[in-house]
Each structure stands twice: as C-alpha cells, then as structure tokens.
Write a structure and sequence with these properties.
alpha/beta; Alpha-Beta Plaits; 20 helices; 47% helix; 14% strand; globular
C-alpha cells in the first residue's frame, strides 16, 4: 500500500518532536518538506499541529477504547494512533478508511508489525462511535481545573496556575486560543513591500494592534518573494509591540536577539544609532545576520553576561529566554515538555541576564525586560528580585502606550486593557496576539 506524502512526513515530524525535542514549526518549514505540494504541506501542518494541540484529549480517547494507557506503547505506535484518531474526530473531509489504513501502514513501515492489528482495531472502534465533538462548548462549560485541562487538552498543573493568576474565565479563553490555528502577522517596512506581497497573491488586512502590522488573510507569505528576500518577516503583533516600547536611542543593546524580528524594529526606528545584537548560539546568530541587513547593526555570537563591549547603552532590550507559555497556539509541543521545576530554573537564568544588562545601562537610559511567558516567576518575580539588588525603578507602561497611540503606532482602541499594574500584559484569547509581558526599567531620569 502506498502512503500519502503528507501522512508520511507528519509521522516523521511527530517522532522527531518526541525523540529529539525538536520544535514542530521549524521542522515544518525546513527544506526537507519544501518540495511538497501546497495541498500536501497543508495536510502535513494540520496533522502535526492538530495532534500536538489536542494530544492529551486524543490519548484519553485512545486509552478509553484500547483499555490500556497510550503512554505504555512504543512511540511509533503512539504517533500513528494519534494521527488516526485526530483525522477521525477532527477532519471530516478525510475518509475514515484512509485515516485507518494509512495509520496501520505507518506502524508496519516503522517495523512495529506486531502492533498493526491493535492499531486497526482501536481506530475502527473509534470510527463507529461519533463521540462528543462539541470541543469548544466543553471548554466553555468547564467548572473546575480538571475539567478545563481535559476539555482544553492542557496539562492540569499549567491550567491550575492560570486559574490562580488570571481567573477561570480568562484561563478558558487562553486554553481555547491555544487550540486554534493562530493568525499570521507581518511587519511591513513600507507600502511598496505591501504591494509586492499583494502581487504574489498574498491578501492582507490591517493589524489589530499596530499600524505597521498586517494580518495575512490568504496566500502563503513564506513563498512570496519579499519574504524570501528578507524584506518582510512573520512576527506576532505582541512581539512587535515589545520592540516599539524600547523607544529611541543612540546606542542600543539587544540581548538574546535571535531570530531578529525585534532587532529589525530597533534598527529601522533608529537608523542613526549603533545597534549591538547579541545571540548566544552561533547558528542562530548567523540566521540573525541574514535577516537583519541594516549596516548599523553589529551581530555578536556570545553570552551577553560575558559581553566585552565597552561603554554603556541608553536603550537595552532583554527579550529573555523563557518557557513560551504565551505562544502555545504556535508551539503546542511546549506544553507537553514543560515541567513546574523548569519555570523556577528559567528564573535564575533570566535574573542573571537582566542583572548583567542593567549594569550596561547608562544613567538616564531605559531597559525593557520581556518574555512570551504567562508565568509570574518569569515576569513580575524576576523584576522584583532584580530591583531588590539594583537602584532602578519600574516605569509605568501605560503612558508609553498612550504616546505610541497618539503618534499613530498603536491602533488598539483601549491601551489600558493591555496593562496589568505597571506592566504590559497581553493574554491569548483576550488580545489579538500571543501572550507577552514587558517591564520598563529606568534610572531616575529618562528622555524619550
């Protein structure tokens, strides 16, 4: 029996995500799958991201019908079963016969022939039982952490944290957002680039937060020439907003700079400034050099905590490495890897980077600390610990958002809704972007 290229590729990607701790979005956009037809690549993406988003719910169903824990099976069998049940329960356009037979064939080709009959039997049981398919209604009706974790297919410990931090209703919105395919946003440097994208059959709409952002309504922006040339990059509007908060300076430091979206914002808004972008990993620093082509940007591969660059900076961005829990719609594999202890471990690294950066901030300068995490240990607690050891203050972010709105850069009608205390705090499902936190730290005086 022949296998469809999309299912074969999806099986490979899911195994690599499990075995190698790889990230699905990077694999899906790798050269290995670039030659797939748009239809096959679309199905590949749907299968991989769908399985990862709904994994625990799929596993619950499979365990119910097989009478054994799915986690007790070999990885190849797990992936084939998850792909099969996802197609049966979520993709009505896929014939059940194709979903079942190709899942069995995947197991055979993975040299797990002894499990083929088992896979076939379990999927056929599921096929004849339509089951409860009101997935979004189940999330909305959840009244406890356990019910929300099961219906929304998130780890219970993570949902419990969100209910504590944001309340049950907002936790529901976050979980529901994470289970949808997120929109694609780009930042446009000029009108001519927008026209070029339209000529490549990429339909755009205005951004929901920012005047410089556009939402991709249809078309594949990653195959458009302006994207391939590096003129435009995909970047969530919340991420773009963090870059705008840094403001204007003469000497700017971007810590942990890859992949470079915020670096480009800093460079384009400060064409006369010296911009130093530091990235720990050499291969990511090289990607950064390819994306950010502005001549006044210096890319350094190294640890910002050991930066030998002399002199102070009047603007610094610390886009700290974090858990990424604000980006689970784009990176669903994170929620199955992350452990509670990881959050505390990340705090130590974040704090050391922030303290090192503060030491490089000149008097009267501004530092923006940001993460794409929803967890207080990585956000407010990092700021509190850093300020306990340094003579800096937290600047209220709301006046800065008001300034950006008055100058036409923010189009969101209610900037105050983006704020929690003195901090920027966007939440998936409440705002039209991923979850971001940002704090502005300053010396006693600062010029815009």
């Amino acid at each position: 029996m022949s296998l469809s290229p999309a299912r074969s590729a999806a099986f490979q990607v899911l195994l690599r995500v499990d075995h190698d701790q790889a990230f699905a979005p990077e694999l899906l956009h790798s050269e290995r799958y670039a030659k797939l037809s748009p239809q096959d690549h679309g199905l590949l993406t749907e299968l991989v991201m769908g399985v990862l988003r709904w994994r625990s719910l799929l596993d619950n169903w499979l365990s119910d019908y097989s009478k054994r824990p799915i986690t007790s099976l070999d990885a190849e069998v797990q992936s084939a079963l998850r792909m099969g049940v996802y197609q049966l329960r979520f993709l009505d356009r896929i014939p059940a016969r194709a979903a079942i037979n190709e899942s069995v064939e995947l197991v055979k080709r993975a040299r797990k022939t002894s499990a083929a009959a088992f896979v076939n039997a379990v999927l056929r049981k599921i096929d004849v039982d339509p089951g409860e398919r009101n997935y979004w209604e189940a999330i909305e009706k959840a009244e406890t952490v356990s019910e929300l974790a099961r219906a929304g297919s998130h780890p219970e410990w993570l949902v419990e944290r969100w209910v504590k931090s944001f309340g049950l209703q907002d936790a529901k919105r976050i979980c529901a957002y994470d289970q949808h395919r997120p929109g694609v946003a780009v930042r446009l440097p000029d009108v001519s680039t927008e026209n070029e994208l339209r000529q490549c059959e990429v339909e755009l709409a205005p951004g929901l937060l920012l005047s410089s952002a556009r939402r991709v309504i249809s078309g594949d922006v990653t195959r458009a020439q302006p994207f391939l040339n590096g003129q435009v990059a995909i970047e969530d509007e919340g991420s773009q907003l963090v870059g705008l908060l840094v403001g204007f300076g003469k000497r700017i430091l971007d810590c942990c700079a890859a992949p470079g979206g915020k670096t480009r914002i800093l460079a384009q808004r400060n064409p006369q400034a010296e911009v130093v972008a530091v990235e720990l990993h050499p291969h990511r620093a090289e990607l950064l050099r390819r994306l950010v082509k502005e001549q006044h940007v210096q890319v350094i591969a190294g640890d910002v905590r050991a930066l030998s660059e002399t002199g102070a900076f009047d603007r610094i961005l610390v886009d700290a490495p974090c858990s990424g829990t604000g980006t689970l719609a784009r990176n669903p594999e994170i929620k199955w890897r992350l452990r509670p202890s990881d959050v505390q471990d990340l705090q130590q690294r974040q704090l050391s980077i922030l303290q090192s950066a503060l030491a490089k901030l000149e008097h009267g300068g501004r530092l923006v600390y940001a993460t794409c995490s929803l967890e207080p240990e990585e956000n407010e607690e990092v700021i509190a610990r850093a300020l306990a050891q340094n003579s800096f203050r937290i600047a209220d972010v709301l006046p800065e958002l008001g300034w950006l709105r008055s100058h036409g850069e923010i189009t969101w009608a209610e900037p105050a809704s983006l704020v929690r205390g003195p901090y920027l705090r966007t939440l998936p499902g409440l705002h039209p972007c991923d979850g971001f936190f940002a704090a502005i730290l300053e010396h006693s005086t600062v010029n815009r």
